[in-house]
Each structure stands twice: as C-alpha cells, then as structure tokens.
Amino acid sequence: MSDSPYDLSVVLPTCNRAPLLERALASIAFHTGCRHEIIVVDGGSTDHTPDVLNRARHSLGERLKVIREEKREGFVRAVNKGLRSAVGRNVTWLNDDARPLPEALDRAVHQIDHEDPSVAFVALFHRWNSTRNVAYESLHHGHLYRLCHVRGTLYANFPVGKRETFERLGYLDERFYFFGADPDLSLKAWQAGMKVVPAYGALIDHEQVEDDRRAVDNPHGESDNAKLFEKWDLPEKNLRFNDFHPDRPCTVKGLRQPVPNAA
Q1: How far is Cα 65 from Cα 210, in angstroms, rounded to an integer?
Q2: How many domains does the chain have?
Q3: Residue 178 pLDDT greater than 70, yes or no
Q4: pTM
Q5: Residue 110, H or E segment
Q6: CATH number at residue 138
Q7: SS3 breakdown of the chain: % helix, strand, coil, rounded to 5?
Q8: 101 in Cβ contact with 205 (< 8 Å)
Q9: Which of these, 208, 174, 220, 167, lies nearest to 189 by C-alpha position?
Q10: What is residue 261's predicted lDDT score, i.e. its pLDDT?
Q11: Within 13 Å of residue 120, how many CA atoms lie on the same side as its CB?
Q12: Does 1 reside within a domain?
C-alpha cells in the first residue's frame, strides 16, 4: 500500500455554481468515511463560491485544496489540474451537481484496492436517463443507475482508479472540451491492456441543473464526439439493438491510423 495520507482524492471542478458546490462538498464529506481530500478547481467564479469554500475549510481543514483559475478553461483542463495535484492513493472526479450516495466512494475504494492489477478503473453507477448505450443497470430504491458503453466498449463516467494509473495513461486528453474525455480515458486503459469493471453498490445521483455553464458546454458535444471517433477504431454504430456484451466488454481495435495527406 502507498504511504499517502489519503485513500482517495476527489477532484471537483466548478464555476459560478456556489449552491451546487456547497451541496456537493457536504454530500462527499457526509457520505464518505475513508480518508479523503477534496480538490476544488474554481474556474474564476464571480459568485459566492469563495464564501462557500471558506465555510467548508472550517470543517475540512487541510483536506480541502483549492485551485483557482483566472478564467474558466473548461472541464477537462480543470480535472487535469486537480488530478496532477492529488496525493491520494486513489483518485476520481465528480461534477458539482453529482451526489454520491452513502458509502459509494468507500465501496469503490475498497473494490479498486482489492482488484487485480489489470483493472484500471472501477466504474460508479450513475443516474442516466437515456436508454441508449447502456451496458449495466442497478436498481436502488426504485431508481435505475446505469453504466454506459461506447460502441460496445465499457467505460467509466466516474472512474475510481489508482493515482499511478491516471499518471500512466496521461490523464484526460485536452483535445476534448468535456464530452469525449471520459470514454477516451477508458479507451486508453483498454488499449494499454487494462480494463474497466462495474463498481456494484457505488451509486452517484445528479441534480442535473440547467444553467449558463451547461449552455456554454453543450455545443461542444458534437465536436468532442467527432474527435473521439476520429481517434479510435471502433465498430460502426448499431441502430438496431444494444450491442454491449458483458463477456466481450471491449470492442476497440486501437487507435486509428492518421489519414495521409493527399498527394
């Protein structure tokens, strides 16, 4: 085991969503029993975010680390800044509108600590309202929590993995703005000979608040998806049925070869 003072580092990007951030900090602290630090990456907030962080510091002390950007640089860069500053034995990230259920992060940490070294990430189940691209489902108190796949390959929207694994894989690819970054990280793990597995009993809820920040992020979705499929050699989209098979959780053939320039 590592001599890290923390079992888990949680990276939490935010910008001008002080009420959501306050609830996120409370949810993580209240529902997580393992030794953990929270790294908030503030994208130059101009609302009451500093007040929220000052109040949180009274209860979290040195377990709260704040990285402040002069201006918001996007989700991927924010997460990478947090990951690079993490000192926990394991690391993950959460959105500021995500809410881990009781013991969710503890269960994920326990599982990754006892997994075979070939496992890069345990994937936390989350509230995903679409029925598209669903790999696994878990029912809890009448609500469905899901894991997703990209063209038949399981990936982790919320991955918990060893800090050394994130370092080995090069963190998130900053060519993505937001939407393609988490499947890409998981595809890098599969490409490296590692795998992603479900973290049963580790559940993440969402408040799913629509606001100006989300309105800025959403238009990047189409270009991020295009970059993902330009980078990876994945099967064609199957429009007839869900093509995820638990006994074949990876369909990626590798990185696409760059298209040579026309003569």
Answers
A1: 27
A2: 1
A3: yes
A4: 0.92
A5: helix 104-114
A6: 3.90.550.10
A7: 35, 30, 40
A8: yes
A9: 167
A10: 46
A11: 24
A12: no
